[in-house]
Amino acid sequence: MQVEHIALWVADLERARRFWETYFGASASSEYVNARGFHSYFLTLDGGARIELMCDGTQVLGSDDRPHDGWAHVALSLGSAEAVDALTVRLIADGYRCVSGPRTTGDGYYESCVLDDEGNRIELTV
After folding, report:
1. Angle 24-112-12 (CA atoms, 0-180°, nearest 5)?
2. Which sequence spans correspond to the domains of the chain?
3. Cys-Cys with 123: which of 5, 39, 75, 92 at CB 3.0–4.6 Å?
4. What is the pTM of this model?
5. pLDDT per position as a tens digit, 1-18
6. 13-24 and 81-93 are packed helices; what angle lies between their axes, rounded to 10 degrees?
7. Angle at 26 between CA 20 and CA 30, to 5 degrees
8. What values do phi and psi take at 8, rounded to 5?
9. What is the DSSP pairing of strand 6-9 with strand 98-104?
10. Of 41, 44, 55, nearest to 12 (Cα)?
């Protein structure tokens, strides 16, 4: 079994797409729009992992139709501690907030955790 994709509700679909393309080399599908006003992109990362960015202007964040805003976090393996450090520094320099790390956790992972434009947690790990 494998994860097919993770889905993320966002308020600004285009800004979220640009973030993932710029910092994680994501490749976006064509925008999907249905008759009810739902918009989405599927983003593909190196290695094949996919993220579905979703925005629905007809629903309110936190409503019964959208019970959760964003996600708890997504962990992305960058391959080395140096890569974690470098991307963390780049994101901070570009104005993004680092909420932890880079550090070695109690269970032995080297990681940092940053927030995207909408406060979603992205864990950068080896």
Report:
1. 45
2. 1-70, 72-126
3. 75
4. 0.74
5. 466 789 898 989 999 999
6. 140
7. 100
8. -135, 120
9. unpaired
10. 55
Number of H helices, E strands in the chain: 2, 9
Give me the architecture of the 72-126 domain, per CATH. Answer: Roll (3.10)
Reported as a single tens digit per residue, the pLDDT across 48-79 is 999 999 888 655 554 444 445 677 688 898 99
Strands 27-28 and 98-104: what pairing? unpaired
Could you tell me the two tokens for 17? 């797409």
What token pair was written down for 48? 């094949």
Question: How open is the CA angle 26-20-31, to the nearest 5 degrees?
Answer: 75
For the chain, the C-alpha Rg in angstroms (whole number) is 15
Can 1-70 and 72-126 be said to share one CATH topology? yes
For the record, the structure tokens of 77 come out as 């393996």
Structure letter (DSSP) for residue 23: H
